[in-house]
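Why show two proteins at once? Because comparison is the fastest way to build intuition. When a single record is shown, students tend to memorize it. When two are placed side by side, the eye starts asking what differs. So, the first record is below.
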Amino acid sequence: MSNKCNCNQTIPHVGCDVTNCKYNTNDCHCTAENISVHNSSAVTKGETYCSTFCPRGTC
């Protein structure tokens, strides 16, 4: 899976509130080529997580 940043393009209809993710734009949209959300046993929204997340300046 490639998470390369397409900083000029966002994934349509995918918002992101994680301001310290390198794929998050200033207007809360995702610029990763694709996203992957994990936790197959999740039963609530809070039990899921975006494995595409990469802290700014570390990836």
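Second record. Ask yourself what differs from the first in the token line.
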Amino acid sequence: MLLVTFSASAEEVKILNLEDSLQIAQQNNLTVQSADQNLKSAEAQISVARAAMLPRLAASGNYTYFKNVQKSVIQAEGGFGFPIPGDDTNEMSTPNMDNEADLIELEFGAHHNVQGTVNLTQPVFAWGRYYYGYQAAKLKYEAAEKTLNAAYEKLRLDVYEAFYRVLIAQEFVKVAEQSVTLVKKQLGIAETSFDAGATTNFDVLRAKVLLANAESQLIRAKNGVKTAKNAFKTLLNLPFSEDVSVKGSFEIPKIEIQLDELIKLALEKRPEITQSQLNEQAGQKQLSVAKTLNLPDFAFFSNYQISHNERLTQMNRIWSLGLQINIPIFDGFASRAGVQQSESVLAQLQLGTKQVISAVEFEVRNAYLALLEAKTLIDVQRETVAQAQESVRIATIQFENGMITTVGLTDTQLALMQAKVNRLQAQHDYVVGLARLEKAIGQKIQ
């Protein structure tokens, strides 16, 4: 039962096409997930910036218990130590401590005290400080959206490269297997000819060496498939224990777009350029905020307070409202330093935008030239494989009839194998090059 279970699980291979791979990568890729969390953080920053412009309402309350309250003793006549009417105002009446009837003990305060306060504050005028901050937060959110789009575009290219790397590795295995089959056939012919006395042992030995080399190439090709699959599974965030395979073809779509038009599209559609420009605009808003920090600001406030204790027959209620002005006088030159820092950040963002534009144009040019090179190689290799296959067929007949040696047959077989490898490599380079060009201009080429 264990053997049957193991065999069944070993046969389960997940076969993925390009669209399936892209969908899984978008769901599982850690870089995209990080960019998505960054977008959510930027969205929260908009709410924080908006909150600075809205009223702030705060409530507080407390209960205090005094086990012992403050007490004081006063004289019954002329209480609280003030002169009795009619007496000399320059002489204070002093309580007679020997006569307790002349003294009154009073308690100030209460044992149980309850107090509550509600405070309302609304910024009125701050030279646009809070509004600039809100605009900067919105611009940063839009920049974060472009960052997420750029992450998707980069992931799309990575999936294309990893997918077609596995696909071409699988095709290389097929070519290596065909080479092994051809050499085995050559070895069989050499052994038959040797047994018949038509050739020497040299042809047999050479065929055996070629077979060993072909089998070594096959082993390397199979190992290349494993390496490519591991990189593919890492990108899709799939477990290494899962056995996957890819299914696709090297379709060669034709495009007729000039380089100048591609560069223009890239400057308009590339998310990294838009992201850098939005960050630059946000930096300008932050500079505007920094310039208002040393200016007065006005705010409206209102307070409502209640208090009560056991000695009161009615609860105390106090309500007030007013306007508040804050005038910065000296902050240790912090405001000036903040403005200088914001100016420096803005200058860096402006330089960053220029660098991004230059890098995008360079990327488009490189991708375009690489695509033209791959297309040229495909045109060159179009008839090569057919010609090499015909050469192998003719050389095999000639070798069977003793017209050529093993060297001649081997040369034609190696040429066929190399032609197939070159054609596959050119097709791979074209498909991947097209994906790189689409990433460089920020959109698919129809």
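One difference worth noting in the second protein: Residues 1-10 have pLDDT under 50 and may be disordered.
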